Amino acid sequence: MKRTASFCLAGILLAGAPAAAEGDVKSGAALARQHCATCHAIAGTGPSPNPSARPFRGITKDWPADSIAEALAEGIRIGHGTRPMLDIDLSIEEIADLVAYLGSIQR
Length: 107
Description:
It contains five helices and no strands. It is mostly helical. It has one domain: Cytochrome Bc1 Complex, Chain D, domain 2 (Orthogonal Bundle), CATH 1.10.760. It is globular, with a radius of gyration of 13 Å.
């Protein structure tokens, strides 16, 4: 399933389909609260609950949105060093939503 999602996402990104760029910010925020907020600061301000977890508001300074989308499709296995990361299986729509949310809070 994850490999299929990764290939589908890569095809959407390469084709420039609107679905990849038009995620729902509100749904992405809900996903961030559900899957990410225990470690990361997911809002536009404040520190992360886990000091070693990068706040979401600056994440696209080091990783472009398409790289983040690919990492999400793979279950997020980049940028976490030796710290284990949640193995989550998001749909293409959920990935677009989370990427849209990330884009909405960047500084």
